[in-house]
Automatic annotation (TrEMBL):
Keywords: Leucine-rich repeat, Repeat. It is a single-pass type I membrane protein. Coiled coil: none annotated. The keyword DNA damage does not apply. PANTHER family: LEUCINE-RICH REPEAT-CONTAINING PROTEIN DDB_G0281931-RELATED (PTHR48006), PROTEIN KINASE DOMAIN-CONTAINING PROTEIN (PTHR48006:SF81). The keyword NAD does not apply. GO terms for cellular component: membrane. It is found in: Membrane. InterPro entries: Leu-rich_rpt, LRR_dom_sf, LRR_Rcpt-Like_S/T_Kinase. This is Leucine-rich repeat-containing N-terminal plant-type domain-containing protein.
Length: 312
């Protein structure tokens, strides 16, 4: 009987402990789960903070932006916020001006496993800037676009801009810029948009521009250029989509526009000086498939309008 009593005693003795063990693991599990969630959240926050802190703009580019800001007359840049998690500093358009007001420095922070940022866009539209163009943009080696539309900038386009070989867009419309266009811009192999309208540029379009075969938009309206419209515009620039030459100062005749410009959608030319353009010559090939708008106003045109124009 002793063995049975012993067994019974042990059973009675252990049962309360089992209750405690059943309760404690649940409590411990709940507590551990809570602690894991807390520490996990802290870990994630720390990691994100570390990652965002690690993605930094090189000092050389920070210094370059400071120099560019001073040259342009930009006084309100906060260089601690120039690159924010790769998105740049994007200010909302002013309600007074809408989309024509833009204050935007955009950075790409995907370099070196998301640890390095580089400036890729500078958009300072309608900022009231009254300085000059920075002499050299090569300190921003990844810069793709600079847009300084609707300011009061003066001076010339520095020849050093030709060394910024990643540039895709140069937009300088509606300023007070002057002088001739630097031949060194021929060294911009990726340039797609060159907008120079409403300034005081003079001289001829450099022959070296014939090499700008990636160009899609060329806008030089409202300037004081001289010389004839270069033949290479409608011969070499086979990617051209839009051309604006209203009151540019250039002279005719208009070079022949052939079907190799199969992407051409806008041809806007007006107020040409100099020689006449004769419609009896093959001026525009009727097979331009994408042409949407053709304006040839006050261009000293003579002859009959070709019947083929009705096919555009």
């Amino acid at each position: 009987m002793k063995p049975n009593l012993a067994t019974h005693f042990l059973f009675i003795h252990i049962k309360p402990k089992k209750k405690k063990k059943l309760l404690n693991p649940l409590q411990k599990h709940s507590n551990m789960l809570f602690l894991r969630l807390v520490f996990g959240s802290i870990f994630i926050v720390c990691c994100l903070t570390t990652l965002s802190n690690e993605a930094s703009l090189p000092n050389a580019e920070v210094e370059a932006l400071e120099s560019i800001g001073r040259t342009l007359g930009k006084t309100n840049w906060n260089f601690n916020e120039t690159c924010i998690q790769g998105n740049g500093r994007l200010d909302q358009p002013s309600p007074s001006f809408g989309d024509s007001y833009v204050d935007n420095v955009t950075c790409d922070c995907s370099f070196n496993n998301n640890t390095t940022c580089h400036v890729i866009h500078i958009l300072l539209k309608r900022q009231g800037l009254s300085g000059t163009l920075p002499l050299n943009l090569t300190s921003l080696p990844f810069l793709q676009e600079i847009d300084l539309t609707r300011n009061y900038l003066n001076g010339t386009i520095p020849r050093g801009w030709g060394s910024s070989t990643r540039l895709i867009k140069i937009v300088l419309e509606n300023n007070g810029l002057s002088g001739t266009l630097p031949a060194a811009l021929r060294d911009l192999p990726k340039i797609e948009k060159l907008h120079l309208g409403s300034n005081y540029f003079t001289g001829k379009i450099p022959e070296t521009f014939a090499s700008l075969t990636s160009l899609k938009e060329f806008r030089i309206s409202d300037n004081n250029f001289t010389g004839q419209i270069p033949d290479f515009i409608f011969r070499n620039w086979t990617n051209l989509e839009k051309i604006y030459m209203e009151g540019s100062g250039l002279s005719g005749p208009i070079p022949s526009i052939n079907a190799t410009l199969h992407n051409l959608t806008y041809i806007i030319i007006s107020d040409l000086n100099g020689a006449e353009t004769n419609f009896t010559q093959p001026l525009i090939d009727a097979s331009l498939p994408k042409l949407e708008r053709l304006m040839l106003r006050s261009c000293n045109l003579i002859g009959e309008i070709p019947a083929s124009f009705g096919t555009f």
